[in-house]
Amino acid sequence: MTIARTTRTEAAETLADALERAALEPTAGVRLLDRRERAIWLPWSEILDRAREVAGCLAALGVEPGDRIGLIYATGRELLEALFGTVLAGAVPAGLAPPPRFGRLNGFGARTSAMLESVDARLLLAEGRLARRLRETVSPRPLGCTTLDDLPVGRVGVSAPADGDSLAVIQFSSGTTLEPKPVALSHASVLAQARLLNSLWPDSVEVEHRGLSWLPLYHDMGLIGCLFVALERPGELTLIPPDVFAARPAVWLRAISRYGATVSPATNFAYAYCVEQVADRDLDGVDLSSWRVALNGAEPVSADVMRRFGERFGRWGFEASALTPVYGLAEASLAVTFSQVSEPFVSRRFARDSLGVGERVREATDGRELVSVGRAVPGFRVAIRADDHSEVQDGVVGRIWTRGPTLMEGYLGQRLATSQVLRDGWLDTGDLGFVHREELYICGRLKDLIIVRGANHSPVEIEQAAESVQGVHIGGAAAVGYLSATADREQVLLFVERARGASAEQIEALPEACRQAVLARAGLEVDTVVILPPESIPRTSSGKVRRSETLRRHRLRELG
Amino acid sequence: MTVDEILAQVRELARERLGLSVEVRAESRLIEDLGLDSLRLQALAVEVENHYRICLDPEDEEAILTVSDLVQTIARKLNQK
Predict the structure, then answer these.
(1) What H or E segment, with its residue span, contains residue A480?
(2) What are the pLDDT digits (tens) for A82-140?
């Protein structure tokens, strides 16, 4: 195996090349765990064989190179076949989240249709039972919604004519609006990102890296950060369905131990969830000492959560120095900065009033603790800019811009939205931060996105739910997420203006009524509801609520 | 297995596996009364499917709004086995 790796000559140009190359490595492949923790092992060669069949069937159906195909699958064999089959047909997969469990499929159908339309998808491939249900409501033209089993029989061995510059995958990125934006990534970008990540944990005499993940494969950290990383290496990856992790987070830790995984990324929520949910008795015989790289990204990172995770699982051999805070976004293919992989994470406290845009940060012992997300990954640069786009000095808070070899081509078919974030080869991340002692710290998001328990929520969705409650002033809600010093996950704070003329009983019932409405309509628990008099939420000149300003004034007790 | 037995088991799953402390009654609505967010709904679905070795269909799931709906669906699935 070492020979295969050291003699690898040129880099794969497309995902199809990478799959063919990986198939020559007999010990590399994907292990799939099911909900009873039973494993099946699929060498890359088997995935390639099956993907060739699927590609032939897709061609027989009428799929042409460059066509976009939506995919809705749980993590499993069928997903890998559909994904790589699409790639070998020269088409472009766009992974979508499966529907929520229980109730509420209507909204899902409409959302999914809108996403498919936004990328001009010609076909939706979905799991059998789901496809039967979705067919009536979600049916992209002209090829509709179908399953792998229902595809016409085709000639095996169709190969992709794509080159490195052609579109490889579409990743939906949640913005502030209700419609996620389709991030278009080329083969060259996703493979360069996978290579870059693999270079950050090279194999050595002592360790040959093995990946393991429960992250959904319709998300960049799962698809590119785990699956394509294993494909590019080529190496071994164990996959756990995300809902199995949600039900039993101990499965993640047990699998790391059982398969000797060395690299496993997750979100801050997942680390907190394990501390909260995993019982000692779930970890009989578990040894986590193989886990060298425990990436923490995609959400605000809490120092407290990482300390608690390290302390809690140290007894099972977990090395706290494995915890590695990282920063990235779908628009950059994934990683932008990394902290030192084998060093303990770094956190510092900064005076709260020094963390506003344009301020120079000051360290303060009673300040807000922020975690360093490290330095730019190879090939990337990070710049902090003021609102007028001029670069600010180190230590001053501004918008984080980045430049690097794996930025997206743009939002597919959305020239205006693309021109708002991509300028002169630089990407405006929409996040706020500063550079301190050559390391990047994130202190807020311009995008207002709220990320709780691994799910992204638009504040608009939460506000609309609250505004449906009787006694709430129309347009009088502002939802913000923030990571407080004491809580281990992002807290959701909902500011609500009571309507003029609301009765005392109505006002008293407002917090609970708003909570219920948000839970029912947005599927999320609000931590705190703050009831305010009318006209007390700050707004822009056009009347839009200013969410971060609302939070800032609330903290300074200047509201209402 | 009777519907009452299944209800008792679902209560047990909710308490033991999901850590629910509110009272779980047949008429309790999963979201509004039990306060289950999307993550815990996922966990509940996995626990039920694992425990009874059944697969819930999207068609069934759409109609499951209360504990009783869930219990009835489980009973029907077990009968079909």
Answers:
(1) strand A472-482
(2) 999 999 999 999 999 998 888 766 678 888 999 999 999 999 999 998 998 888 888 89
- Residue A446 is given by DSSP the state T
The beta-carbon neighbor of B42 closest among A243, A516, A524 is A243
Burial profile A262-299: b = 16 or more Cβ within 10 angstroms, e = fewer: bbbbbbbbbbbbbbebbeeeebeebebebbbbbbbbbb
Same domain for A429 and A518: no
Instruction: Give me the sign of the Cα torsion angle A228, A230, A231, A237.
Output: negative
Report the 3 state secondary structure along B1-61: CCHHHHHHHHHHHHHHCCCCCCCCCCCCECCCCCCCCHHHHHHHHHHHHHHHCCCCCHHHH
Size of interface A-B (CB pairs under 8 A): 87
Residue tagged 């120092």 (tokens) = A303
Report how far residue B15's alpha carbon sits from residue A47's, in angstroms, rounded to the nearest whole number: 41
Catalytic pick among B4, B33, B37, B57? B37
- Residue A205 corresponds to which tokens in the numbers above? 């005499």
Among the partner-chain residues B17, B35, B42, the one whose CB lies closest to the CB of A101 is: B42
CA A380 to chain centre: 20
State which of A200, A215, A240 marks the end of a domain. Answer: A240
Counted domains in chain A: 3
Q: What are the percentages of helix, strand and coil residues in chain A, rounded to 5?
A: 35, 25, 40
- Give the span between the Cα atoms of B69 and B81, in whole angstroms: 19
C-alpha to C-alpha distance for A149 and A147, rounded to whole angstroms: 5
Of A182, A216, A240, which marks where a domain is finished? A240
B8 at the A interface (CB within 8 A)? no
Any chain B CB within 8 A of the CB of A243?
Answer: yes
CA A18 to mean position of chain CA atoms: 23
Same domain, A182 and A212: yes
Query: How far apart are the C-alpha atoms of A172 and A184, rounded to whole Å?
Result: 9
Q: Which CATH class is domain B3-80?
A: mainly alpha
Average pLDDT taken over every residue of chain A: 90
Domain of A404 in residue numbering reads as 248-446
Joined tokens for residue A53: 């069949």
Residue A560 lies in a domain: no
Model confidence band, residue A157 (pLDDT cutoffs 50, 70, 90): low
CATH number, domain of A32, equals 3.40.50.12780
Tokens of A193: 């990102």
Write the DSSP string, A351-394.
Answer: -GGG-STTPBP-B-TTSEEEEB--EEPTT-EEEEE-TTSPBPPT
Decide if B69 is catalytic. Answer: no
What was the ipTM of the complex prediction?
A: 0.88
**CA-CA distance, A148 to A133, in Å (whole number)?**
15
Residues on chain B touching A216 (C-beta within 8 angstroms): none
Q: Is B16 on the interface with A (CB under 8 A)?
A: no
Is the pLDDT reported for residue A251 higher than 60? yes
